[in-house]
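Predicting holo structure, zinc ion bound.
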Amino acid sequence: MKVQTPFEWNQRSRLLEQRERSRRLRGDLRTAATTRSEYEPHDVVDDEAAIQADVLDAKLEAIEIALERIESGNYGSCTSCNAEIGEQRLEALPTATTCRSCAASDVA
Ligand SMILES: [Zn+2]
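Done. Tokens:
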């Protein structure tokens, strides 16, 4: 039943690639944040690493959601108004779950 379009397939491999990269990076950051703070005073660099790791956690979560949406066939439809998100927007932001106008009104 899962028929993926070439576009979805392409997005899926991009997301998997991003997930790999983010996971590696996050591991490095966590290591940097924990190993250093054990014998050095907690400094700005450690905080920076922890913040970046948190950002990556959020990104990884968004990637998981996008991958699930591809699996379930919901990828590309806006979670807020059900409109097509549009391939152009998804190309730029593969983890997007809302269309351009919903994203815009969300920010405002
Ligand atoms: Zn929308």
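The radius of gyration is 17 Å.
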